[in-house]
Structure of ABC transporter ATP-binding protein:
Amino acid sequence: MNGPVIFSAESDPAIRFHEVTKDFSTFDDPKHRLAKALGFATDAGRRFRALDGVSFEVRKGETLGIIGRNGAGKSTLLQILCGTLEPTQGSVYIQGRFAALLELGAGFNPEFTGRENVYLNASLLGLSEDEIDDRFDAIREFADIGDFFDRPVKTYSSGMYVRLAFSVAVHTEPDVLVIDEALSVGDIRFQMKCLARIERLRASGATILFVSHSLEQIKRFCQTAVWLESGRVKLRGDASFVADRFRDSELGAEVPIDNVGNARVPQSLPARIQSVSVSREYMEPFQDLSVEVRYSVLDPAIEGLLVGVAIKTLDDLHIFGPNTYLERIVIPQLQGEHRIEYRIPALPLLSGTYRIDVGLFTDKGLVCLDYISGAGKLIVSAPYFSEGLVYIEHQWRVHEG
């Protein structure tokens, strides 16, 4: 297969991966690798299967998230999707104009200036010179790299590469956009800017395939998700469900754990949760409950902070989860430590054991800065008087005759 097949039948999905397998040969001796590259038969190599029968479809206008640990096969999948690798078996189909933001600088000539690379890269993505002229100012403004725009891209930082590459990709107005972890190289404010632009593309009907280690971005931004493990699809379906199952798996595996057993994030982020205190662990229905969240802001330029508190069952059913943005509560964003309290005057949970998750986000909840799963535990006990998870006010009426 020479790259993805582009088709246009309206009834077909925007992306179709069908039984895709990719094998690589590995060699201990460089001579054997060279012989293989030159087309000479050799049995000295070992086969490594990076993808093993992967299948999925993405409907038009849908955003699909791809998650998995390092080495799970995500990069191989994306390279096959973009046509830079050919599958050993299987087929890939894409409908419409296609743009991808993968490896830093892909499609750029390092000797060319940013200006020259705009024309080079946009033409590779299918725009005519007149179309590039029409969108040139918008591309330059969005990239926002100042005087570097007229310097060779070999002098760029990784963040500048991403800014220019993303700007070109989204201004081609693709029908299908593929984005991997390259966005994570940019600063938080640029990520927010990119996510807002992706949201506009999605609202206009574009199909997006989104690879991210941020499970909150996957849950809030994607409708569906695929979890890759050892080159195979371990789970696919609703994005929140798949992301939560992956998080559960990671919490029992190789996730950094603090001294109270919570997953932690790197402390270099612009804001993070310092502590969470829950007013009670044992309670009866309709008692009050308070959750105190202490957080610190390290970067005074960060904007749009919000705190979310979620009550979940132990098997991860999300019962209730408001956040300060949705309820129009402005929380402190100045540099330093801050404290907010979340209070439920009469919690209507029925008997059972529940957990409390707390997250610190920005960009309307799309960018997760810190998240503590199981920050608190609730054990609700009461004499039997109803069934279910929560008590809902209701009435009975008996009509005679």
